[in-house]
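LAB NOTEBOOK - FOLDING QUEUE
OPERATOR: T.R.
BATCH SIZE: 2
PURPOSE: Compare the predicted structure-token outputs for two unrelated chains run back to back under identical settings.
PRIORITY: normal
REVIEWER: second-year student, initials M.K.

ITEM 1
FIELD SEQUENCE / FIELD STRUCTURE:
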Amino acid sequence: MGSIVFGPKVLPDNLTEIAGYKGGLAMSIEEICDHLAGTSFPDVVRDGETSGVRLRSEEYEDLYYNLLHRIGYTRELYLGPSFEQARLFHRFEANAAELDFFMQVSTTMNHFMRIGTPSGESKTTDPSAILAEVNRVFGVAGVKIAIEMYEIINRGIRMNPHCGIGNEWINPLKLKGLFKGTDQQPEKGRFIDQRYIDYLSNNHDRIGEMHWRQFEKLTAEFYERDGYKVDLGPGSNDDGVDARVWKQDANPEDSPLCIVQCKRQKNKIEKVVVKGLHADVQFERAEYGVIVTTSELSPGAKTTISARGYDILTVERDGIKGWLTKLRTPGTGIVR
């Protein structure tokens, strides 16, 4: 493959545009370099600020795929359509009959894509006519393979770094707002923007760095999407109640299902927090309380809950990771 020559500042500017209009995050050059740590690219990007940079096409693709993965745009590192096609092939090669069936479907599908279908449909970007023909010839099993092939094609188009950026966000969101706080309202999501969720789902090590208010919003977002009604507290002067949660069919005058206390901290949660939450649960006549924390409960706090029979649940770091997996944008992983 050939090479791409970037003039001074062109490559760094290109990467900030990719992060902004593709991934939806406004990032500085240094933030981009930080997210490319462990590769050879940070030095390349910094050099590109003052001098021209020459990259082979495959090097630029690697840079592009790594950046989008590390800011949460793809759940797994994308390696290009050729790799995905090869992986699909290898899934069938161990069984001669299955491999033959796969090759027949693949050959027939490619034929229809080049010249159209026997029913008279000309070449089209709409796959429905081709899938119908594949179904007629090969049945449901053939359609499943054809759909996977189309997904690989579509993902390759969407992830192609050589065909323009393909703007997906109009207003990039400052990444530092996740850690410093921001008043910018979410474009997608009620409490916290989806872009922050996708970012954190690929950067679990930064959960503890979140701004405390963003951590509360993430908690509220999870319960909201899990089918509950949520009232997120003001963030200060809330008497220790960060969120109240009701069942979807609850009446306005009903007591909350649960009271949520969010603790984004490094130190273990002590029993004084447990006792305070239990008091809030009783006062609000809720069924139970929940402590959501980036840390964990101290032995004393755990003993207090069990010994006194408090109706208190905990969601610790691993639980939050599970939330992020559940909340991240669907369809951004690799189909296997």
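ITEM 2
FIELD SEQUENCE / FIELD STRUCTURE:
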Amino acid sequence: MDPERSIQFYDEWDYFFYSHAVSRIVYDLGDQNYTKFDAHFDMPNPCGSIASVELICLADDVEIYNSGVWRGNQARNTHISFDIPENAQTLTINVTDAGDGDGCDHFIFANARLLHREPSVIEVDNNYSDVNNDGFVNIVDLVIVASRYGEKITGNPHPNPDVNRDGIVDIDDILLITQDMPPVNGAPSLLNTQRSILNSADWQKAYAILSNTVVDRGVAVLNLLFGAAVPTKTLLLENSPNPFNPETWIPYHLGKPADVVITIHTVDGQVVRHLDLGYRNAGSYVSRSSAAYWDGKNALGEPVVSGLYFYTLTAGEFAATRRMLIRK
């Protein structure tokens, strides 16, 4: 079974992972108050009507979604979306072979994500979210505020990270910024999830305008505030910048310690470069000082040609692939 059979859908997907029925995927929801699961499911089988799968999803061991049996080409880039009960602690997704026992039941989950409930709006008399007064509320403003978290502010300095003007830079100021930021990758408009913020290509803008030290400190503070200093699951995030020339950074989260390798390959599967990152502890590797770095060269030190490439993160039993574009 070859994931290249799904190549016609690659332009629609930001990321995907590839596995085989029988498989079980377990999300630790904790106290994150997720409200919905959303994904695309694809079964790129070469076996015609022989192949079959069934998705059974449980919240705290109670069934909340059942796809019924999909056979043959019925499950091609199928959109899946269902509600998660309030206060659920675990979400389990079981992918079965529907009893056929055949070896054709490989599948792809693409753009799988958990959505949060939207928080209450914080009211403030005046809007000072555009901290640097450039006419936009974006990741630059968020980084400025996060990098000065906990400071007491007197007067009206420029830039002023005390968004609500209560004399101290705290979580309320950060939430006010995220309320006014445009939606990122489909995240809720009131409070963009930390994953979506870190996924935003605007990080490149932050590094272009602010010093690396300021951005790295802002990233660290955001990780701590959003409870992701030690993530509960492993994720491969979007490289930044993307498109790029000639270098890029590849951020990721590790839910548990693992040996980490990133493999960069062409559309036809030819390996261009292995980035062996060695053993890494659980944590968020999203800033330029901690994310994986690729200089746009192959294993021989030669610059690669412009075009579409894929990068795969392997960490223990976890593997995920995303795409990137070199534009010269």
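REVIEWER COMMENT (ITEM 2): The mean pLDDT is 78.
FOLLOW-UP: none requested
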